[in-house]
Amino acid sequence: MKHIVLTLLIITGFTSFAQKTEYATQTDVKYYEEAVYKNDSYASERCVLDIYYPKNTKNFATIIWFHGGGLTQGSKETPEALKEKGYCVIGVGYRLSPKVKVVNCIEDSAAAIAWVFNNIKKYGGDPGKIFISGHSAGGYLTMMSVLDKNYLEKYNIDANKVAGLIPFSGQCITHFTVRQERGIKDTQAIVDEFAPLYYTRADAPPLLLITGDREMEMLGRYEENAYMARMMKISGHKETKLYEIDGYGHNMTYPAFPLLLNEMKRILDKQ
After folding, report:
1. DSSP state string for the chain
2. I want to staple 239 with a disulfide (CB 3.0 to 4.6 A). Which of 53, 78, 206, 235 is the partner?
3. Per-residue model confidence as pLDDT tens digits over 76-89
């Protein structure tokens, strides 16, 4: 009996001393300068982000997450699958078409990324460990805001400092909402300054492209990503990978989140 009591005491003692990571959340943080929000209720509503981060932790990695919705709908979100993994997760809101043009959506995403680079240290994070991801329209913004270096150069940030890009089913040709703005039909493919494919380059951050099953995805979505992967490699980029998730259509986030986390770990282990 004494042995049983002693064992229980030891187990209880270890449990009490075990330090479980606690997380804090800060919501509706403005990522533009205050002047941008003055007399602009739409920017005040949309151009904000939520921060979920591990407390009392230093030099943690951060995942910036852009929601989907075709650049016309949706709102900021912090995916449950990314919580309690030891990382900070930042859900970003951005303005939507038709109230603004697609270029403004990209500008918002870049402003949010710049805010994270400039502020994550205050929360304990390492600005050298910032990853960017998002689904569908969010995947498009992930690529556009970084592959076209001009958006982050506005904030004196080198886009190549991003640790990794992991877009989920992102559009790689000119976004269909841009084509709608121009009165161009969905089936007419265009690659111009509003296409991630326009900015393939050897020196970009590591890129993991993830799509659903090509037979179940949105029109041409797998093929766009496959072409993107091919052209990145031809451009000399050494860290481009493409995953196609069999049996899942466009809403393929559930099986994709573990791939995102594995890619983060792979990159972090090399740092």
Report:
1. -HHHHHHHHHHHHHHHH--PPPEEEEEEEE-S-HHHHTT-HHHHHHSEEEEEEETT--SEEEEEEE--STTTS------GGGTTSSSEEEEE----TTTS-HHHHHHHHHHHHHHHHHHHHHHTEEEEEEEEEEETHHHHHHHHHHHSTHHHHTTT--GGG--EEEEES---SS-HHHHHHTT--TTS---STT-GGGG--TTSPPEEEEEE-TTTSSTTHHHHHHHHHHHHHHTT-S-EEEEEETT--S--HHHHHHHHHHHHHHHHHH-
2. 206
3. 999 999 999 999 99
Cβ proximity of 210 and 245 under 8 Å:
yes
Cβ(94)–Cβ(66) under 8 Å?
yes
Once rounded to an integer, what is the mean pLDDT over residues 109-130?
Answer: 98
Tokens linked to 189 = 């493919």
List residues bridging with 133 in a β-sheet: 65, 166
The label of the residue with tokens 């240290």 reads 121
Query: How far is it, in rounded angstroms, from Cα 44 to Cα 54?
Result: 27
Orientation angle between helical segments 102-123 and 137-147, nearest 10 degrees: 80
Per-residue pLDDT reduced to its tens digit, 5-40: 434 334 444 443 456 899 999 999 999 999 999 999
Based on its alpha-carbon atoms, the radius of gyration of the chain, rounded to whole angstroms, reads 20
Q: Which sign does the torsion angle of CA 123, 128, 131, 137 carry?
A: positive
The gap from C-alpha 63 to its chain's centroid, in whole angstroms, comes to 6
Whole-structure pTM value: 0.92
Q: Which two tokens stand for residue 261?
A: 């986390």
